[in-house]
Task: structure prediction
Amino acid sequence: MTEILGVPVAVLSGQLMLGIINGSFYALLSLGLAVIFGLLKIINFAHGAMYMLGAMCTVLMFDVFGINYWVALFLAPVVVGCFGIVLEYFLLRRIAGQDHIYSLLLTFGIALILQGLLTNIYGVSGLRYSMPEMFRGGMNLGFMFLPYYRAWVIVAALLVCFGTWFMIEKTRLGSYLRAGTEDSQLMQGFGINVPLLISLTYGFGVMLAAFAGALAAPIYSVSPVMGSNILIVVFAVVVIGGMGSIAGAVITGLMMGVVEGFTKVFYPEGSAAVIFLVMVVVLLIRPSGLFGKEA
Amino acid sequence: MTITKKLLTSAVASAMLVGGAQAEISNDTVKIGYLADMSGTYRDLAGPNGLTALEMAISDFGGTVNGAKIEVVSADDRNSPDSSSSTVRRWVENEDVDMVAGLVASSVTIAVSNILEESNKLGIVSGSAASSITNEHCTPNHIHYVYDTYPLANGTASAVVKEGGETWFILTADYAFGHALENDVTRVVEENGGEVIQTVRHPFPTSDFSSFILQAQSSGADVVALANAGADTTNAITTAGEFGLTQSGQTLAALLLFLTDVHALGAQTAQGIQLTTGWYWDMNDETREWSDRFMEETGVRPTMVHAGIYSSTIQYLNAVKATGSDDSQTVRKQMMDTPINDMFAKNGIIREDGRMVHDMYLAEVKTPEESENEWDLYEIVRTIPGDEAYRPLSESKCKLVTQN
Amino acid sequence: MATTTTQTDIQQSIVKQQKAEQRKKLILNLVLLALLLLAPAVFYPVFLMKILCFALFAVALNLLLGYTGLLSFGHAAFLAAGSYTTGYLLSSFPGLTTEMGIVVGTVASLVLGLGFGLVAIRRQGIYFAMITLALAQLVYFFFVQAPFTGGEDGMHGVPRGYLLGMVDLNDNTAMYYFVLAVFLAGYLLVQRIVGSPFGQVLKAIKQNEPRAVSLGYNVDRYKLMAFVLSAGLAGLAGSVKTVVFQLASLNDAHWHMSGEVILMTLLGGTGTLLGPVVGAGFVVTLEYQLSQGPLGDWVDPILGAIFVLTVLAFRSGIVGEIQNFMRKNLS
Result:
């Protein structure tokens, strides 16, 4: 068998595949963060909590109302998105125009509240959610066994990422958004309801996180604390990609998934730290990230 | 206030000198401090429900001991040794707490046991897994009651090797607890004629295990052992199921699983997994009777830690009653002299290093067909006698043992 | 003639006002000092020492955040570096006096701070925050891997030892006054720095960096100096904390700790000298009180609610709001 650095190529191809799957989650999450930061200049430290809410909603919708996976995959993000809009309207709006750090503190506080409340109600061991029937099993790719669900994750995540990018960069709504956040008074003058636009944008960014959460529900342990550690990894991804760059966040998300995947083979202990190492190196060479515009 | 207290204690001390070794309960109160993770990672295995177990023990005991009242204070350890040590220092120095119960995260337990040794109070550890607590970190002031990493590795690994699992792949959480489990498993596997062909250490915590499961599959090992805990273990088991690890003929062995973890996974995902436990709620009438009462209070079935907290508190109060004293050494000696026979343990013995040695159980998770309700999860396969399960004193590095 | 009189009058009244204000400040400081000196009679000393350690940590962060305008999201690395270095030295070399252990711990943090600073200092705003976070994560990884830290079990049984080889620090009262002295030294140092010409340049950088550059200041060097000083003070706080608690743990290095100290500083009031001290006292006390009572499992949501409230209603922090209130009522 052919080998690279003592590891069979088949194993590496498998890891590449898994890296892309993990990267899809990073891409979805960092995309939401990038939208919120790029358009609203809010450092959303509640993003991990929103991811968690998406997953919790999916599970609870099934447990309480018997809502199936497909409906929940749509409904959970909508519910969490609406919740995001409420948060924006009642809380975040009040600190618009202040230093970034206040948005960080405020959203961090919100995350603490959400995580703490749900922990007291549901505990930390995790909730049970079974895989939808049609995704049971998987296919043999020769170099690995790929569960159907993981394949679906890639497809779903990439579709949503592409759709988001298209909407923001190529449609009229997207151009309003970009313009509205750059010069809100001018847009207001054109008769566009900028505050509404901002609420919707925050709600949309949060929705992306919740979608990632709903997508994660069948394969990861769903608990109130699931979002707290993924948060800073996703922040790192956004920074490496260049804050505010939509395409950058998606591409970097996928890349970091792969980098992390290979680290898990060659130096597994370091797989949690490798993204931060990449981040330091990237920022030293390109101060505004891989895809960011030079300041 | 403190001066009067000091005067009082010295008066009591001189009275003791005059009247021989007459025992006393200080302040006419036995005060127990419950310190555990109430809000973080380890909340479910001890947490608020552990406090309920403790309170059940006190009320079952009658609420008083030799006429002295029994009081409880509790605190969240925040999984932080700093916070815990300031809490416990205040408990023992200003609030006359006699015994500290609960104790989960190993960093917290070690920090607290050092303070207890300094102030000569007693600690009964129910939640921690690290076997170092009664080995290199042992003190004359604490007892490790429920389980530790040594029998976990011992029970599961030797059983699995004997069933024909010869080659092993160990997936270890990259921290002290994981390393300890990994070493113990490796030793047991090799002693029984098996071989560890690969170990991989994953960062703590990890949410995606697919990469590691793939490595485990391509290793070709008979057995994939998980030397981790909590969410890491449940995530790894879920992923192993998804990638068809067991269908392709490999055996999955989890070294530390609590009932709450298995409950979260469900019988569908966890079925067939072998694990070692110190206690299970559905073993006999005694355990069922107590668990029913516990469930009435809390809404969930107790873990071995909850049962251990209840049992150790009763044993402690019995010892206080028998000696008429709440002095840590007097009580600890009494507890060591009295074999434990209750719903938690049969013929449990507290050794000089503070390890409570009792039978452990090898369990297998039931299939969904066998499982009658959401908490009907284990089939007890084998009882592992206590002195076979725990680290023998001859291997101990505890200062209390080597001195003798 | 008339105008000169008015001018001197105004000057005199300004001088008078300044003097009065200085006197007020002096009195306030003396009262606070007296309270700190007497506090152990009322409060539990170990608890007070914890507050002082975190207060020093927050004061260190404030030198950067409040006076230079740099948000470091990696200050836990310095706390832990000081903490582990001192813990390791005092445990492994019994002959070492306590203050030597603390000095070396502080130096270790200074050196680490220099490393961080050289990498991070050229980045601004959120990028600065993120690169310090990334570096701190790498340091955390190192502490998890390094055998001497004891991993998640932590480092335990660090001897408190003797100060200068004479004063027994195992006595809580002696320990308290030692910690108080270290804290005051750190606090006065920051006060001195802020009031010095160097501090004025830092404030100028915070207000308008391009202008500071155009005035001919080597902004990077000033920022680096501030960063290294701040790191050193954070390390000092960590070193002293290790001696107080006789342990060092991974909690000190975790990014939550970096977050917590930012919250303390903001809550008390950035850019005020006393703010971080009040903020640290408030957060530590609150966490402690909540974790004891029946609300034990509600600590996180309550802390979260307080942060939300602070941002929405008291953005200048506790001390900042009080100052604003006084200023309004005085003028």
About this structure: The domain at 3-285 of chain A is CATH 1.10.3470 (ABC transporter involved in vitamin B12 uptake, BtuC). The two ends of chain A are 49 Å apart (CA to CA). The interface with chain C takes residues 43, 91, 94-95, 98, 100-102, 105-106, 108-117, 119-120, 232, 235-236, 239, 243, 269-270, 272-273, 276-277, 279-280, 283-284, 287-288 of chain A (CB under 8 Å). Chain A is about 70% helix and 5% strand.
